[in-house]
Amino acid sequence: MTVPSRPQHVDSPGSAEDRLLEALRSGSESAYATLVGRYHRPMLAVAGIHIRSEAVAEEVVQDTWLAVLSGLDRFEGRSSLRTYIFRILTNQAKSRARREARTVPLSTLVEREAVGDGSPAVAAASFSDDASSWPGHWVSDPRRFAAGALDQVLEAETRSVLFRAMEALPPAQRAAITLRDVYGWPAVEVCQVLGVSAGNQRVLLHRARSRVRAVLAEYLDGN
Amino acid sequence: MATEGRIRAPGGLSCREFVELVTDYFEDVLSPPLRARFETHLAACNGCQGYIDQMRDTLRLVGRLDDDAIPEDGRERLLDAFKRWRASR
Fold first, then answer.
1. pLDDT grade, residue B4 (50/70/90)?
2. CA distances (Å), A82 to each of A27, A96, A140, B63, in order?
């Protein structure tokens, strides 16, 4: 509706996924590359909720791919391939975190990020209660980004601004925006993988989107 | 806060409140009355129109990051693992 629509290529675990699975089982390297391209970064984002070290998270994701492959012959397709992959990932990440004895229950982490800080979507100083307009109006109206600025997005610098903004987010917020907005997952699957309620998923997403918008606005407009 | 003759916020929402509802609006989970107030505010407020345009553009840009390449050494390791798996079957 109000959000720009884009191809939801990972949405329907129907026949396209069946074909991919079949190709993978028959040893197709390109099927494997497709899966890696589709899930590797989302996996890193989810592993990052459990594991602070980027290097260790990468190891966990690497181990997960090995486990996915070696379990493939036993995978019966009762769940989607995506569900299967992320179940293995979550188990691997949790047991790794446990071994390193720094496990914080996921629910606690996510709650802390979703409910904890109550930081506003836009810095409080952007609004004013002076009498020139209604209470809580903009000090200076945000304006749509210039079209030229948007074309720059494919440029390395703009991309790295966006990536850095996302990397600076708390891990559950980063996972939410990565899965929903970068990779186009439906909300219900994000709730499932993150183990959060629909409401908390929206709060995480809201914080993440608001923060990334603010960073982008500062970069493009200096406002 | 509201004093005599004070301008009333459109939809009874301040801009400060409006920005906190944007995700719920996009996700279509606002109650019908709140949604109506949100849209009334939006129609009357240039700043919030600009804000919501910025948010839509942000989402569009973020949605283009899905082609980001996996670092070379990680990809090599993934491919090696795949080849070993294939050879072992």
1. low
2. 18, 21, 45, 20
Distance from C-alpha of A162 to C-alpha of A216, rounded to nearest angstrom: 7
Mean pLDDT of chain B: 91
The C-alpha atoms of residue A180 and residue A205 are separated, in whole angstroms, by 8
DSSP states of A150-188: HHGGGSHHHHHHHHHHHHTS-HHHHHHHIIIIIS---HH
Interface test with B, best of A63, A137, A204, A223 (most B CBs within 10 A): A137
Residues B14-45 have pLDDT tens digits of: 999 999 999 999 999 999 999 999 999 999 99
Cβ atoms within 10 Å, residue A217: 21
Q: Which residues contact B53 (CB under 8 A, 6 or more apart)?
A: A144, A145
Q: What is the structure's pLDDT at A116?
A: 59
The 3-state DSSP class for residue A6 equals coil
Q: Are A204 and A113 in contact (CB under 8 A)?
A: yes
A82 pLDDT more than 50: yes
Give the nearest partner residue to A3 out of B46, B51, B59, using CB atoms: B59
The reply to whether the predicted model has a pTM over 0.90 is no
List chain B residues with CB under 8 Å of A134.
6-10, 14
Amino acid residing at B27: E
- Poorest-confidence range of A35-44, A83-92, B73-82? B73-82
Nearest CA among A214, A197, A179 for reference residue A115: A197
Structure tokens at A21: 């699975």
Pairing verdict, β A127-128 and A137-138:
antiparallel
Q: Find chain B residues with C-beta within 8 A of A162's C-beta.
A: 61-62, 65
Tokens 């720094």 belong to which residue? A102
ipTM of this complex prediction, to 2 decimal places: 0.90
Helix (H, G, I), strand (E, B) or coil at A3: coil
